[in-house]
Each structure stands twice: as C-alpha cells, then as structure tokens.
Amino acid sequence: EPEVTQTPSHQVTQMGQEVILRCVPISNHLYFYWYRQILGQKVEFLVSFYNNEISEKSEIFDDQFSVERPDGSNFTLKIRSTKLEDSAMYFCASIWGLSTDTQYFGPGTRLTVL
Amino acid sequence: DQQVKQNSPSLSVQEGRISILNCDYTNSMFDYFLWYKKYPAEGPTFLISISSIKDKNEDGRFTVFLNKSAKHLSLHIVPSQPGDSAVYFCAATNTGNQFYFGTGTSLTVIP
C-alpha cells in the first residue's frame, strides 16, 4: 500500500535555528498538507498546498514558516527561526483530489526546540 | 476558536461491547466529516467518513452517524476489540483545503 514518508523522525534544534522537515507524499497525489500536534493537544492544520502554491493557511502559519515542493517528490516545511513553542509533532498528509475521502498521513517528525 | 469538539478525552469499554465516540461542530458550512485513529508515535490513519448529504455510513464494525440539526456526529464500533484501543480524532472540512480536528478521545478496550 502506498504511504507518505517523513524525515527525520526526530529533530532536535536550538532556539533560533532553522529547520527543514521533509515529506514524500504519495506519488500521484495532488494536494499536500502540514499539521502539527503539540503534546497533549489537538492536531492543528498549518497549510495546504496545491499546484505549487499555498491554497490555505492557518493563523499558526506565520512568516517564520514556508513550504516548498522543490522537485516532483518532496514536500518540505521550513521554520526559519525556531521558538520553544514550535516543539511538536509535525504531520504531513496528501490526498489525490479534494473529493477523495482518504487523507494519508505520514508518521510524523517530532521537533524538539531547546 | 474550536470548530470541532470532542468533549470526552477518554473512554473505556469492555471487549465485545459497543464503543460510542462523540463529536460536535459549530460551523454549519462543513460538508464532510472524517474519523481518524491514531496509535502512539504514528500519524493519524483514516477510518471512515460521511458526507453531509447522508446521515449514516457503515463500514464493517464501524458506523458513523451524522445529525446535522444538532451539529453532532458519532462513531460506533461494534463489537469493540482490544486492537481498537487508540486515540480517535474527528475532523471536518467544507472545501477540502482545510481540515479541522477535534482534540481526540482515547479509547481503551478492556479484554
């Protein structure tokens, strides 16, 4: 069965450093998402991406965040200057089309900001 | 602004009995609802969904009920099995661009 992959599984960084979280969505999917889950809290939407541009973003997704699809397979989330409160699990997801009912999630990257 | 709410953080059920997980939403524009299951250290896994034009969708042991007038949906698992023990998230969308998740309900099925 196809799956979304994410690397690294765990990233530890110092406050103020830049991090790039990587995702490889399912190959024929067209819509891509990033979510995060702070420990013990709900899964929060960050951003959706389609046709090489952001479709929608939440209030959390401020200027410190950016997404990119640098080639045909990777989908990255960059945090320019990490803050302590960025520590969370970050999930990437992809779907083929908006009408589909199955959003495939990756296993997540645990980001720890010290 | 929590548009999707799961008011029960945890639920314990005996094996073989019915598990009922509840979810409420506030945005009447939502037209698609989904349930996800999440094990520790894994990403959420899609379980079952329902469109707003329906009031019930069934898939094996899992049934989702939608009450649009009450802005309420529920997931029924019958019979519950120990392997069903996980955190269950309810999610909703109206455009497919943004999905709103509840805070999750941790289900424990006791053998």
Description:
The complex is a heterodimer of chains A (114) and B (111). Chain A is mostly beta strands and 114 residues long. Chain A has strands at residues 5-7, 10-13, 19-24, 31-37, 43-50, 53-57, 65-68, 75-79, 88-95, 104-105, 109-113. In chain A, a hairpin with a 6-residue loop joins strand 7 (65-68) and strand 8. The mean pLDDT of chain A is 90. Chain B is an all-beta fold and 111 residues long. Chain B is 0% helix and 54% strand. Chains A and B meet through strand 4, strand 5, strand 9 and strand 10 of A and strand 4, strand 5 and strand 10 of B.
Looking at this protein, list some descriptive labels.
heterodimer, A: 114 residues, mainly beta, seven-stranded mixed sheet, four-stranded antiparallel sheet, globular, B: 111 residues, 11 strands, 0% helix
Low-confidence parts of chain B: none
Biggest sheet overview of chain B: 6 strands, mixed
What is the radius of gyration of chain B computed over CA atoms, rounded to a whole number of angstroms?
13 Å
Helix content range of the residues of chain B, please? under 10%
Q: SSE order of chain A, as H and E?
A: EEEEEEEEEEE
Q: What structural class is derived from the secondary structure elements of chain A? A: mainly beta
> Which shape of chain B, going by the Cα principal axes?
globular
Order of helices and strands of chain B: EEEEEEEEEEE
Which overall shape of chain A is indicated by the principal axes computed on the Cα atoms? globular
Q: Strand portion of chain B, in percent?
A: over 45%
What is the CA-based Rg of chain A, rounded?
13 Å
